[in-house]
Amino acid sequence: MMVRVFLIEPVVGVYAFSMFMLYPLIQQYVYRRLWQQLTGAPYPTQMNYTHCSDSSTNVSSIHQEIQKEASLFLFYSELCFLFPSLLSSLLLVSYSDHRGRKVALVPPLVGELLFALCYATVSHLSLSLGYLLGASFLAGVMGGPTALLGGSFAYIADLCEEEGVEGGGVKYLCEEVVGSMDIVGIGARDGGSYQCEGGRGGGGDDCRDRGMSGGSGEGEQRRDGERDRGKDGGKDRERDGESDGQGDRERDGERDRGKDRGKDRERDGESDGQGDRERDGGRDRDRESDGQGDRDGGSRERDWGKGGGRTVRMAALEMLLGVLSGLASLCTGFYIQTAGFTWPFITAAVLHLINLVYTAWVLQETVERPSHTDSSSSPSSSPTPFGVGSARFLQREALIGRFQGVYLLFTASPRRRKTVLGLILAAFAFYTVSKLGGMSIFILYELNAPLCWSEVLVGYGSALSTLIYLGSFAGVSLLSRCLRDGYIVLLGLLSVAAGLLMAAFAKSTLLMFLVRLPLLLSIMPAPVLRSMMSKIVLRSEQGAVFACVAFVEMLSIGVGITVFSSTYASTVSWFPGFSFLLASAIALIPAVLIGVVMCLRLDKDEEASRLTADDDEEETESCGQSLQLPH
């Protein structure tokens, strides 16, 4: 019996482990290569604290020079990755609405595989660092992490579509297609509702149970209705029998009454028998449907990875990303001491290859691809009769249509929804600049005086950062039960500002480790903001909105790393913690924007439902005005 896998978490988990094996590797490898180039001597692996922090020695000035050069090289590498990835991530994630989510998942994995192999080659052969800039450009062309994460979050949105229900519950929608049977199953949490639809061939079944105390299935609803109708029919026949029996008593006496009662009992028996046969038939149909589902490819229990709340599952994805990245960073320090740099790069490449195989051939698709027959039979899909030229024309027009979907997400939406989406996107952008831009220089700051951390301490610090993701996931899981999304975001932004402010004045190893404590809730804004944007758009626009999020995230990461790398290089000689102060101040901007959204009461679930309902109406009205392109 075939098992279909819808688990996107292994893809993100293995990708995070591999990527964060590379991230500290890259910074430390570049740092050591620049040390060799500037000093002409190998890097002192057992450098002691006094030798590093003594400002009177020549080593201290060398440290500052290498800090500047390493920061600038990482800045150039980020630029080579940024510009191509901006366009490619936007294209891949938005195009996944049409061609399936794997369009946004497979290319980034291929790019990261080639990226790791290039670093392994440069490390093993001691080639020029310029080749690493080319590897960064290639990885950016293939989409990078933002395209993969955008496709992953859209994949989750396809599986778990939350809707508010009366009584404060949350309803999640999960779809599947089994053979020729289309099944839509809706479960409920916290007093939600349940709905399931099915159809096979030309027929269809429908079952709906809106009771808040728990759902019952289609067979029970039908059997209850048939049982009630049977009872009502029996009562009507009894009343008719009593009326007829009174007339018989007046005409024929007690003899005829017995006959009429006998006839009534026979009719009642036939009615009860008919009801029993209908109920038995309903059970047989249910069993037949279940058996057919098993024969067509497995029952619902064999679809791994379906269900769950959208916000919590997105937070779980962020948590998985952080936990495995910390574990990878912890392993990297010992791996470098044991085997150098080449083998860790090769290990990361092998993990990307395994992940690529799983994504391409094991993971199931959630978006049905349009068939060539349908596209060829459509009147709008045959603009020219010139064979290959026509096919290329259609592909070009369909590609333009993917960008049109992102464009219409803002131009064809109600003004209220555009305002909410713009404010949340802006808040997400400033949050990304503040958090990732500030934390991107953690390793350089830790390698510099007065900390002078070794690769093992760097690994310990990165591993300790996994507490940030665990704390943020626990925070979202618990706080989402009692607080609005806006308050959760504000708490996360406060955590970001406090943690970076503390890092600016961390001058000892213990204090730098303790910086992770105020940062415990700093990841919460990312999944909550994504969920807020996903809730206010239609199901057919999930890819478009996550493409916008991926574009904004990649742009924000590039701007953040660019600004803070150059700022750190300029201020490292007189105050290395200035970049952290700047990042802490920037975290106040998204707090103000979310405050505006909350003051306008635009972050409530009922408001989100109203926004999508208004969008449905305006979409119907503007159907004739919008540009229609072939797909």
TrEMBL record:
- Compositionally biased residues, Polar residues: 622-631
- Keywords noted in UniProt: Glycoprotein, Lysosome, Membrane, Symport, Transmembrane, Transmembrane helix, Transport
* Chief location of this protein within or outside the cell: membrane
Asked if Transmembrane helix is a keyword of the record, the answer is yes
Q: Where is the composition biased (Basic and acidic residues)?
A: 219-305
Localization recorded for this chain is: Lysosome membrane
- Ranges where the record places region Disordered: 197-308, 610-631
Query: Could you give a single Gene Ontology term from the biological process aspect?
Result: vacuolar transmembrane transport
Q: How does it sit in the membrane?
A: Multi-pass membrane protein
Q: Which residue ranges does UniProt annotate as crossing the membrane?
A: 6-26, 73-93, 113-133, 315-336, 342-363, 420-445, 457-479, 486-505, 511-532, 544-565, 577-600
The record's Gene Ontology cellular component field reads: lysosomal membrane
For this protein, the record's InterPro entries field holds:
MFS_trans_sf
GO MF:
symporter activity
Task: Identify this protein by name.
Answer: Solute carrier family 46 member 3
State the species of origin: Oncorhynchus mykiss
